[in-house]
Amino acid sequence: MSDFDFAWPTLLRHEGGYVNNPADPGGATKYGISLRWLKSQGLYGDVNHDLVIDIKDIQALTPDLAAGFYRVSWWDKYGIGRVIDQSIATKLIDTAVNLGTPRAVKIVQNALGTAVDGVLGPKTVKAANDAQASVLLSRMRSLQAALYQSLVNSNPSLQQFLPGWLNRAWDRV
Fold first, then answer.
1. To the nearest 10°, the Cα dihedral for 124, 125, 126, 131?
2. Distance, CA of 52 to CA of 54 (rounded, Å)
3. pLDDT, tens digit, for every residue of 92-114?
4. Per-residue pLDDT averaged across 111-136, rounded?
5. DSSP secondary structure of 30-77
6. pTM for the complete prediction?
7. What backbone phi and psi angles, to 5 degrees, belong to 19?
8. What are the angstrom distances between the C-alpha of 102 and each of 94, 118, 143?
9. Helix/strand/coil for 163
10. If we measure between CA atoms, which residue out of 14, 36, 12, 13 comes closest to residue 24?
């Protein structure tokens, strides 16, 4: 089984610190945790415990709190640890955090040539575990980069994010 603790440094490197870019639909973010997402979590998202989920909660996030959110709400929730190869699991959670889990799983499924439903079920996990990791990762990177380019093609205002997205897609996790 793969281990979240080995994936976390990649997420932290890609997500970075505090950002409040008006062009980002997630709003203010820190370590990749967006205000929009925190609000969707109810009181679980009330980081500073003042019963109001606002930009102050984003600013109060620590790396440990962010890691806890990622572990519970992505890694554990979707069973990413069932993917044995650490590099594939790391790529999967990193992509899921950035693009949403269904899109990330569809990238894996397309890279594997299996049925595509966006669910990390037992068949997808088995196929990923049976695949040659280097080949699967190469295909995942290409598909991720193509998806980013497609997003920009359909919404040119996202162009400012493309260089960072492509760096993320091609990064050797």
1. 90
2. 6
3. 999 999 999 999 999 999 999 99
4. 98
5. ETTEEHHHHHHTGGGG-TTSSS--SHHHHHH--HHHHHHHHIIIIIIH
6. 0.92
7. -140, 140
8. 13, 4, 14
9. helix
10. 36
Distance CA 104, CA 110 (A): 10
Produce one character per residue of 3-34: b if its CB has 16 or more CB atoms within 10 Å, e if not.
Answer: ebeebbebbbebbeeebeeeeeeebbbbbbbb
Backbone phi and psi for residue 34, each to the nearest 5 degrees, phi listed first: -95, 155
Residue pair 1/89 in contact (Cβ under 8 Å)? The answer is no
Query: What was the pLDDT predicted at 173?
Result: 73
Placement of tokens 């950002």 in the chain: 19
Name which of 8, 11, 60, 14 is nearest 165 in CA terms: 14
With b for 16 or more beta-carbon neighbours within 10 A and e for fewer, the 40-49 pattern comes to: eeeeebbbee
Fold for 4-170, please state it.
Answer: Chitosanase, subunit A; domain 1 (1.20.141)
pLDDT for residue 144 is more than 80? yes
103 token code pair: 């899109």
Would you call 167 helix, strand, or coil by DSSP? helix
Spell out the residues 6+ positions from residue 17 whose beta carbon is closer than 8 angstroms to its own. Answer: 30, 31
